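Saturday, quiet lab. Running sequence design on the structure tokens for the scaffold JK sent over.
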């Protein structure tokens, strides 16, 4: 329970950081200066500045990774074809964009053991008696990225949406 409270506090700190810095800058540090003097106020300002560097860097890295993924990965899908009772062929096609705007298509084919196929795909094979399935990997990866940010920073859906400047359905 204590761990959850700490993580919730850190998530709120990261999400509301700009407001916290502004509050310290306009209210707390001037008050500190009046009550405790310049040295104490400068020490507090240095601590807030140090924290700002770390938290702002973290937020920038999250935004940069999200932006890179959206600009460079145009599409990604995997087609799973059952070839035997123990083997499934996975064919992943990825469309990426280079810095000069060229689109590159990469195809990777691999043989997978039945137990190495994702559980949701195995369930579909069993339930629907189909020989192949296609998965939009880009959407899956986006969802995993959002969940990872939510979990690591302990943010709500809306907080992640604000940070990444996206709409979450």
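Result came back. Writing it out in full:
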């Amino acid at each position: 329970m204590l761990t959850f409270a700490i993580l919730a506090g850190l998530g709120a700190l990261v999400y509301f950081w700009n407001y916290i810095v502004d509050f310290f800058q306009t209210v707390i540090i001037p008050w500190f200066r009046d009550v405790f003097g310049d040295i104490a106020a400068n020490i507090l300002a240095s601590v807030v500045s140090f924290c700002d560097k770390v938290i702002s860097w973290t937020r920038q890295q999250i935004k940069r990774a999200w932006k890179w993924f959206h600009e460079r990965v145009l599409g990604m899908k995997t087609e799973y074809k059952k070839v035997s009772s123990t083997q499934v062929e996975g064919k992943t096609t990825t469309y990426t964009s280079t810095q000069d705007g060229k689109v590159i298509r990469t195809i990777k084919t691999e043989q997978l053991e039945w137990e190495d196929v994702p559980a949701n795909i195995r369930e579909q094979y069993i339930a629907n008696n189909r020989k192949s399935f296609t998965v939009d990997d880009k959407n899956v990866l986006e969802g995993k990225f959002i969940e990872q940010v939510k979990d690591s920073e302990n943010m709500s859906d809306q907080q992640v949406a604000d940070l990444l400047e996206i709409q979450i359905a």
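Notes for JK: The radius of gyration is 24 Å. Residues 2 and 12 are 15 Å apart (CA to CA). Ask whether to fix the surface positions before the next round.
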